[in-house]
Amino acid sequence: ENIPIEEVFTALKCSREGLTSDEGNKRLEIFGPNKLEEKKESKFLKFLGFMWNPLSWVMESAAIMAIVLANGGGKPPDWQDFVGIVVLLIINSTISFIEENNAGNAAAALMAGLAPKTKVLRDGKWSEQEASILVPGDLISVKLGDIIPADARLLEGDPLKIDQSALTGESLPVTKHPGQGVYSGSTCKQGEIEAVVIATGVHTFFGKAAHLVDSTNNIGHFQK
């Protein structure tokens, strides 16, 4: 936010007239669509994955030894130890699975907060478009009730009241003045202003937060 707006325009190779459709399409190929992809995977396979790590290997080996090796003196396999080890293994894997599943749900909740449409200046005309087409350098219009579709810097106009609690945890709306940045996924609670897009998709603050939550690799309680 310390970089003057005019330098932002220079760095992004754009102007206050917005981008042309051709330029927008070229940048879309470079930066990719302004959206986050939610990974789909089998919950059963994910659960089994928690039984495949160094600590689990030790526990599984101990369980196998308990039933394969006699407990000395010709005694039968130690089924009590076997059952105890297996129960601990299942409990540890279940706790780890629940923790990571909750993290995945948090990421999905973040992704659900993305703006589906936005008002953008292309070819010298304002029109409502899918937010997924936005690229760095696009000019967008933000007004009361809008979800910010991408990270952007505010242009000239009155200050906005922005609710970014979903991203930063701040309970009250914050005031954003011209020149300051706003984050994708936050909501405009007051005001109307134009802004220049500086980051989209996974490169936004929102995208990085969602990726961090989604890629969290929780370890089991017994590993901790």
From TrEMBL:
<feature type="domain" description="Cation-transporting P-type ATPase N-terminal">
    <location>
        <begin position="1"/>
        <end position="71"/>
    </location>
</feature>
<dbReference type="GO" id="GO:0016887">
    <property type="term" value="F:ATP hydrolysis activity"/>
</dbReference>
<dbReference type="GO" id="GO:0005524">
    <property type="term" value="F:ATP binding"/>
</dbReference>
<protein>
    <submittedName>
        <fullName>ATPase 8- plasma membrane-type</fullName>
    </submittedName>
</protein>
<keyword id="KW-0067">ATP-binding</keyword>
<dbReference type="InterPro" id="IPR008250">
    <property type="entry name" value="ATPase_P-typ_transduc_dom_A_sf"/>
</dbReference>
<dbReference type="InterPro" id="IPR004014">
    <property type="entry name" value="ATPase_P-typ_cation-transptr_N"/>
</dbReference>
<dbReference type="InterPro" id="IPR001757">
    <property type="entry name" value="P_typ_ATPase"/>
</dbReference>
<keyword id="KW-0547">Nucleotide-binding</keyword>
<dbReference type="InterPro" id="IPR059000">
    <property type="entry name" value="ATPase_P-type_domA"/>
</dbReference>
<dbReference type="Pfam" id="PF00690">
    <property type="entry name" value="Cation_ATPase_N"/>
</dbReference>
<dbReference type="InterPro" id="IPR023298">
    <property type="entry name" value="ATPase_P-typ_TM_dom_sf"/>
</dbReference>
<dbReference type="GO" id="GO:0016020">
    <property type="term" value="C:membrane"/>
</dbReference>
<keyword id="KW-0460">Magnesium</keyword>
<dbReference type="Pfam" id="PF00122">
    <property type="entry name" value="E1-E2_ATPase"/>
</dbReference>
